[in-house]
Amino acid sequence: MAKQGYHHGNLREALVEATLALIVAKGPQGFTLSEAARHAGVTPAAIYRHFAGRDDLVAETARQGYALFSGMLSEVAAERGAPRVRAMARAYLAFAERYPGHYIAMFESGIDLARRPALAEAAGHARDLLHGACDGLCADVEEVAAHIWSLSHGVVELYLRNSAGLTDPPEARATLSRALDTYLSGLGPPASQTSR
Questions:
Q1: How far apart are CA 109 and CA 101, in angstroms?
Q2: What is the distance between the alpha carbons of residues 98 and 68, in angstroms, rounded to a whole number?
Q3: Long-range CB contacts (< 8 A, 24+ apart) of 131-138?
Q4: Dihedral angle at the C-alpha atoms of 136, 142, 143, 148, nearest 10 degrees?
Q5: Using CA atoms, how far apart are residues 62 and 156, in angstroms rounded to an integer?
Q6: How many CB atoms lie within 10 A of CB 69?
Q7: How far is Cα 61 from Cα 28, in angstroms, rounded to an integer?
Q8: How far, CA to CA in Å, does 195 sit from each of 35, 38, 114, 190, 191?
Q9: What is the DSSP code (8-state) at residue 115?
Q10: Cα 97 from Cα 95, distance rounded (Å)
């Protein structure tokens, strides 16, 4: 069936879809290129028409994940200040729930961004959106953005990825909301305001 898709120019996406299913089932390092080919219904040799190898295939899956992630962050970009930060943090959880294969490829594959310019660019765009959301909250926007990202990521890992046996998505959202309340209330005004 997937071979027919290739004739219509869909082999690349069929391989990404196969990779997503394998990543969810076995982890980003737990499958072979032959398994990805078999899931897509093609020979392993056919993969090399589009990808240099398994890591290249996983990197493309991660790149597409960052593009989806950026799209979700952009949807809430109209908010301002703390409400925007909260909306982006909620979008982080929603992304991890909706796209688990992409999330794993992005954050658990060990793919080196420095050696993948397209992936680094996609990741940088998502990071820039989060930085933009934190602009005006504090003098050190980069540090605040890193804290918000860390809070969101930690809640995903604990509750959605089950790294600590906590598997309650509603509690994940409540935990993130409370953590953001605590963190944001502790931020002082930006330096430009305190110097007035």
A1: 11
A2: 10
A3: 132/77, 133/73, 133/77, 133/79, 133/84, 133/85, 133/87, 133/88, 134/85, 136/80, 136/81, 136/190, 137/81, 137/82, 137/85, 137/184, 137/187, 137/190, 138/187, 138/188, 138/190
A4: 80
A5: 17
A6: 25
A7: 10
A8: 61, 63, 39, 9, 6
A9: G
A10: 5
The Cα 185–Cα 119 span in angstroms is 34
CB 5 within 8 A of CB 85: no
Interatomic CA distance for residues 170 and 17, integer angstroms: 28
This prediction's pTM: 0.85
Q: What is the per-residue pLDDT across 3-18, written as a single tens digit (0 to 9) for each?
A: 444 444 688 999 999 9
Instruction: At 118, list the tokens.
Output: 């397209």
> Is residue 113 within 8 Å of residue 123, measured between CB atoms?
yes
Residue 69 has pLDDT above 50, yes or no: yes
Question: Looking at this protein, which amino acid is placed at residue 168?
Answer: D
Q: In the predicted model, is pLDDT for residue 24 greater than 90?
A: yes
**What are the tens digits of pLDDT across the range 31-66?**
999 999 999 999 889 889 889 989 999 999 999 999
Residue 114 is classified by DSSP as G
Query: Which residue do the tokens 């390092």 mark?
Result: 29
